[in-house]
């Protein structure tokens, strides 16, 4: 799997603490090797985000992406659960 990052994602990511950024890089490595590894809790979203999917970065931080094609994902936003869905 290949991963791309939107301008908005990069901006949000840059504001995260280094510890969270490091967690994301570890989860991204897993995602690239196996997007549906159980530790990621990869799942389809609903409602206004129905065309997007989410993976867990930490207990509260999620990364939202869109499947561009079979082998490419575009990460759109990252943040804690309340900021993303609240």
Structure characterization notes:
It is a single chain. The chain has helices at 7-15, 18-33, 81-85, and strands at 2-5, 43-44, 53-56, 61-69, 72-80. With 86 residues, it is of the alpha+beta class. The protein has a single domain (2-85), classed as YaeB-like fold, CATH 3.30.2310.20. Strand 4 and strand 5 form a beta hairpin. The longest helix has 16 residues, at 18-33. The chain is globular and about 30 Å long.
Summarize the structure.
This protein has 86 residues and is of the alpha+beta class. It has helices at residues 7-15, 18-33, 81-85, and strands at 2-5, 43-44, 53-56, 61-69, 72-80. It starts with a strand and ends with a helix.
Biggest sheet details: 5 strands, mixed
Identify the quaternary structure here. single chain
At the third CATH level, what is the topology name? YaeB-like fold
Low-confidence segments, given as residue ranges, are none
- Strand arrangement within the widest β-sheet reads 1-5-4-3-2
CATH hierarchy, class: Alpha Beta
Tally of individual helices: 3
- For CATH, the homologous superfamily is named as RelE-like
- Approximate helicity band: 25-40%
Instruction: Just name the CATH architecture.
Output: 2-Layer Sandwich
**Shape, please?**
globular
Question: What percentage of amino acids are in beta strands?
Answer: 25-35%
Structural class: alpha+beta
User: Which series of helices and strands comes N to C?
Assistant: EHHEEEEH
For the CA atoms, what is the radius of gyration?
12 Å
**Number of domains in the coordinates?**
1
- Note the gap between the termini: 29 Å
Would you tell me the overall average pLDDT?
Answer: 95
